[in-house]
Design a protein that fits this description.
Elements: E1 3-8, H1 14-24, E2 30-37, H2 43-50, E3 54-57, H3 69-81, E4 86-89, H4 100-103, E5 108-112, H5 124-131, E6 135-142, E7 152-159, H6 166-195
Parallel strand pairs: 1-2, 1-4, 2-3, 4-5
Antiparallel strand pairs: 5-6, 6-7
Helix pairs in contact: 1-6
Bound molecules: 5-O-phosphono-beta-D-ribofuranosylamine (GRF).
Length: about 200
């Protein structure tokens, strides 16, 4: 089975790149058909364009954090028009809610830099350091109406080292992210196959 992916991101797109690399190496049976961003200058769009992938900018009507309903509807239409089956949030900085969720029920994934349900929200690696826990990690989960609350598809932990800084921990988490996002998509493919 082949999976058609749409990516939403606001940043550098390293997770998208990891998914693309997995596809290129033949280890992930998928295709990225469109990449959308709320930031016209985001590197993720440039990376996608270089690969000849369709891109688009989501117009959030000047709202800094909100994802207005109209923009969500338009996003859904663009994803559907591109044949997208599964939506991957990869550093997308707006909370996805209804109506977009209704267009892709249980088909929107996110990657978050903590061992959810611990430390949802911003700068989760810093939250972990501040809390003095001994383990951090990252999680790929299905998106629901909450903030980083949906069912977990895959997660991996790593020990917090002596002398760890926010930057070093973040970098180590990001290395794992780039491995587990493609892994999570493989898992989804396997589970979908066995469900049919
Ligand atoms: C990732 O590190 C992820 O944890 C968070 O946003 C970051 C996006 O990075 N959700 P990139 O754009 O994939 O490089």
């Amino acid at each position: 089975m082949h999976m058609v992916l749409g990516i939403l991101g606001s940043g550098s797109g390293s997770n998208m790149q990891a998914i693309l690399d997995a596809i290129d190496s033949g280890t992930l049976n998928a295709r990225i058909s469109i990449v959308l961003s709320d930031c016209p200058d985001a590197l993720i769009l440039e990376r996608a364009r270089k690969r000849g992938i369709e891109t688009g900018v989501i117009d959030c009507s000047g709202f800094r954090n909100k994802f207005p309903d109209e923009a969500q509807r338009e996003t859904a239409q663009r994803l559907l028009a591109a044949g997208v089956e599964v939506v991957c949030l990869a550093g997308f900085l707006r909370l996805v809610k209804r109506p977009l969720l209704d267009f892709f029920p249980n088909k929107i994934l996110n990657i978050h830099p903590s061992l959810l349900p611990a430390f949802p929200g911003l700068e989760a690696w810093k939250q972990a350091l501040d809390a003095g826990v001994t383990e951090a990690g990252c999680t790929v989960h299905f998106v629901d109406e909450g903030m980083d609350t949906g069912p977990i598809l895959l997660q991996e932990s790593l020990p917090i080292l002596a002398g760890e800084t926010a930057d070093s921990l973040h970098a180590r988490i990001q290395c794992i992210e780039r491995r587990i996002y493609p892994d999570a998509l493989r898992k989804l493919l396997r589970e979908n196959l066995s469900a049919h």
